[in-house]
Amino acid sequence: MSNYGELSVYFACPHCHRVYTAKQERKLGRAHGCFRCGACRTPVHEWTGYYDFTDWRPTRLKTKSA
Ligand SMILES: [Zn+2]
């Protein structure tokens, strides 16, 4: 059991600006998929290649105001 190559990444919905976090995992084969915003159904991220994105969760990121 190893988390080799796993990384948390953030994506913002281009339509409603909600922010999601996902886990980026390196795959030995090809991965592809699409994640849609849970609120407005806009595709937030589409991917293809040697990385897969799993465990999508909404998050509340605050922009730094100072
Ligand atoms: Zn959205």
Write structural notes for this entry.
The model has no long low-confidence stretch (mean pLDDT 89). This protein starts with 6 loop residues before the first strand and ends in a 7-residue tail after the last strand. The protein has a three-stranded antiparallel beta sheet, with no helix packed on it. It has one domain (7-59). The chain is built from no helices and three strands. β2 and β3 form a beta hairpin. By secondary structure, it is an all-beta fold. It is globular and about 35 Å long. Bound molecules: zinc ion. Zinc ion (ZN) binds next to loops. Zinc ion binds at residues 13, 15-16, 18, 37, 39-40, 42.
Give a short synopsis of this structure.
This protein has 66 residues and is mainly β.
Mean pLDDT: 89
Low-confidence stretches: none
Q: Largest sheet, order of strands side by side?
A: 1-2-3
* Strand proportion: over 45%
Q: Which ligands appear in the coordinates?
A: zinc ion
Distance between the termini: 42 Å
Task: Give the biggest beta sheet.
Answer: 3 strands, antiparallel
| Helix amount | under 10%
